[in-house]
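Predict fold of Binding-protein-dependent transport system inner membrane protein; 316 aa.
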Amino acid sequence: MGLLRYALRRFVQIIPVLFGIVTLMFVMMHALPGDPVRLYLGTEPGQELADDLIESYGFDRPLHEQYFDYLVRLGQGDLGQSFVYNRPVSDLIWERMEPTLVVMGLSYLVALPMAIGLGIYGAARHNEAGDHASRFAGLAGISTPNFWLALMLIYVVTYHLELLPASGYTSPFIDPIESLTLLIMPVITLATAQTALLMRMTRSSMIEELRADYIETARAYGIPERKVLIRHSFRNALLPLVTIVGLQVSTLLGGSVIVEEIFAIPGLGRLFFDSLIDQDYSVAVGVTLFFSTLFLIGVVLTDIAYAYIDPRIKYD
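Predicted 3D structure, encoded as tokens:
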């Protein structure tokens, strides 16, 4: 019951944080220079048409009235209407959600096993050749920008080797084979930095645990080294790793904006980027709210996972 009360309290605490995020994003979008209607209609729109659009979307009203009206609609579950797509923002988010979640999910599926395996290997071979190689690979992965890696993959794999298509998206639920060929490079781009960071965190935590007294005791009792590494050291080294995994949701969401734009994936990241260019206020705020909710839920679930990993942690 203590854990349940803690989880409910943390989820309730998300609400004021989301309120602050919405407020900040709303003000920042309206502070951008330029007229979104003029951007949408072109350089010489008809004045009557422009006035009709401005009035229909309420852009001629004072900012505080637009803000309070948006909050009222948001409280009713209405994220607003996109004036670029002329469709509800919730429908756009629902349609674009799958590509983003698929790319993020596959990136985690690739990054986590590789990071954990390399981290444990590096800790077990501390200061040996294999450890030095994994540390160098980790440093290179963290230092490589997503956009540069994506462009290099397209340049080498697509234009020189002609192995994979450079852009596009097909749902894995429709055509798994074609989807796999289109997702390999985006997933590698997103997973590289995640793998490097998680590997370095796993290695550091494992090295610290392997120096603990209880590990020496376990070895003195003749427990096999593999069992010492996996059952004893790794379990106690999980807490820092779980923390990073939860917080890296924000990094993946930010990286998805770049990756989806470069590889022409019709996901939420690309929708957000386009909404900033077009100054489509409702879409930008709606996608930001969705991304923020995902991140905050990930943080709460990370905290809850602590109690299952380490029984000494109690939530009252």
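The beta strands are 81-82, 87-88.
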